[in-house]
Amino acid sequence: MIAFNNLTLQRGGQWLLEDCSATIQPGQRVALIGGNGAGKSSLFQMILGELAPENGEIQVPGGCRIAHMAQEVGGSQRTARDFVLDGHAELRQLEERLARAEASGDENEMVRVHGELDNLKAWDAPRQAEALLRGLAFTDDDMDRPVDSFSGGWRIRLNLAQALMVPSDLLLLDEPTNHLDIEACYWLEGWLKQYQGTLLFISHDRDFMDRVATHVIHFEHRKLFYYVGNYHAFERQRAERLARQQAEYEKQQKRVAEIQSFIDRFRAQASKAKQAQSRIKALERMETIAPAHVDSQFEFRFPEADKVSNPLLTVRGGAVGYDGAPLLSGIHLHLLPGSRIGLLGVNGAGKSTLISMLRGATPLLSGERVTGEHFRPGYFAQHQLDELDLDASPFQHLQRLTPEASDQSIRKFLGGFGFRGDDALASIRNCSGGEKARLALAIIAWQKPNVLFLDEPTNHLDLEMRQALTMALQSFSGAMVLVSHDRHLLRNTVDTFWRVADGTVTEFDGDLDEYERWLAEGGERASGGDGKSSGARDAAPQPAAKESAAERQARRKAAAEQRQKMAPLKKEVERCEKELERLAKEKSEVEEALGDTGLYEAERKDELKQLLDRQAELARRESEAEAAWMEASESLESLEADAYS
């Protein structure tokens, strides 16, 4: 059993946890969720003894073996296989003892060490390490490559494999799916569900949590809330808790009003003064119940593009690659307005290369690529975060793109991405990866693209921002090509899947459940290149019943009809917002003119009357525009909610 007792933690002058307690039983798989910066990684540091709380304690059973996933890998010439085996510290120590015994000729020690190695099943350790690597999509050729030769994302996978290799009673994983493709996610889910110890993992991946978690701990308002079940169960239980909390809050506020009314009426009366004072003390002692604020701080849309072409993009007989060697060839595709494409395939198959070619950043080696006259792409990839101007504010990033835009429109737009008040005007140098990702998405949306190319847009985003992005993409009327391991995002935003594999691009006639079953039946390995099963297929949960072609066509048609219904409402919302902005500006100018004291002289009464009439007219039109905006917004939100559900 692991217990958090009255934990209080402060980092950088900010309180993260205040008097928090929770208990985790052996064998539970607990997802830690909450906004970025809520204290999840800090809790891991406290468990590992790397950080001390201001108050309270963490109780871990004596002798508990803890394994954790490091977030960085230093330079190393160790092979991938040896790096993973290094995670098994006891094995490595025995190997060193054996080497010393052999060097000194100590036969008794050699016998003892061999016995301990047999108990550890050391003979099977290299095979276990290779199985972990294959499950995480490393090929047989990768086993002997030095760690230094892998990119950052693949090194994180090596860290994950090493953590899984460690014999442990408690396993700590921080965002384990961030650098995995869907195939590796399936494999990891199967592995973790068979893990015999206690698992604590930080994640913003809803599907992953639904499949792995048995419990959820939610970091909220500097407290820890414990829920039984997976993420879906957490959502239901939290909604019920917040509903009860809201009812209790309203009941308390009614009682507060009654007490305050008594105090106000009788404070000054000598006969009632003692009773009034007792009620004042009762108010002071009453613990305030917070209202249930459940609205996300993020709410944004991708504005309608000014113009669009049909088709937006056509590729005929295309081949793309590097240094003259094709990675993908025989590419034939059309990208039409409203197309919503998800790319499937293991990392390294060419998904990012395909997106680079489609948006025009990588030229074709052969074939033809033709764009429409009004082809206007928006592109997101993780490397773009490094290209942001660290000394500039979010406001400056948008203002540079559109110098003529009003300060109010920029700040209002940024508010939907969580940049409010001083945050919109501060340098992004100290921003987290999630904040930079939000800014990159804001920059894309601000430019009104008619086709989006998104390469793993959720890696640094928390659950609330992922939800906001899902809603925004659902209502986006343009075309979209999406690479993501976030299956919840794919399920709710994509109509058609393209499979990138075996050097070509083909349409996959099915959804994610069918893709998972296809993988399980041997359609494609969930890891790299020896043609053998990785074990993911055996571990993968059984998908839902297969959707027929007619049902799939009906679903896609319904989604397209839903977007068509939303399009005019989106335009009306944007029209009203522009009208309100214009009226507010004109109204401000009139009010400024009315501030002229000379205007109230007798000889200027006609001018005063005109300004007052204009002020009244603007107020009337503003009220009408607000009513129209409210009606359109409510209708749009209703349609979006229907689409999401």
Write the layout of secondary structure elements.
Layout: E1 2-11, E2 14-24, E3 29-33, H1 40-47, E4 55-59, E5 66-68, H2 80-85, H3 89-104, H4 107-119, H5 125-135, H6 152-165, E6 170-174, H7 182-193, E7 198-202, H8 206-212, E8 215-220, E9 223-228, H9 231-266, H10 270-285, E10 313-322, E11 325-335, E12 340-344, H11 351-358, E13 366-371, E14 377-380, H12 394-401, H13 407-415, H14 433-446, E15 451-455, H15 463-475, E16 479-483, H16 487-493, E17 496-501, E18 504-508, H17 512-520, H18 536-539, H19 549-594, H20 605-644
Parallel strand pairs: 3-7, 3-8, 5-6, 6-7, 12-16, 12-17, 14-15, 15-16
Antiparallel strand pairs: 1-2, 1-4, 8-9, 10-11, 10-13, 17-18
Offer a few descriptive terms.
alpha/beta, six-stranded mixed beta sheet, 20 helices, 18% strand
Would you give an account of this structure?
The chain is of the alpha/beta class. 46% of the residues lie in helices and 18% in strands. The protein is built from 20 helices and 18 strands. It has helices spanning 40-47, 80-85, 89-104, 107-119, 125-135, 152-165, 182-193, 206-212, 231-266, 270-285, 351-358, 394-401, 407-415, 433-446, 463-475, 487-493, 512-520, 536-539, 549-594, 605-644, and strands spanning 2-11, 14-24, 29-33, 55-59, 66-68, 170-174, 198-202, 215-220, 223-228, 313-322, 325-335, 340-344, 366-371, 377-380, 451-455, 479-483, 496-501, 504-508. It has a 6-stranded mixed beta sheet with strand order 5-6-7-3-8-9, sandwiched between helices. A 6-stranded mixed beta sheet has the order 14-15-16-12-17-18, with helices on both faces. Strand 15, helix 15 and strand 16 form a beta-alpha-beta unit. Helix 5 crosses helix 6 (152-165) and helix 19 runs antiparallel to helix 20. The longest helix has 46 residues, at 549-594. The two termini are 38 Å apart. 34% of the residues are buried. Residues 525-546 have low confidence and may be disordered.
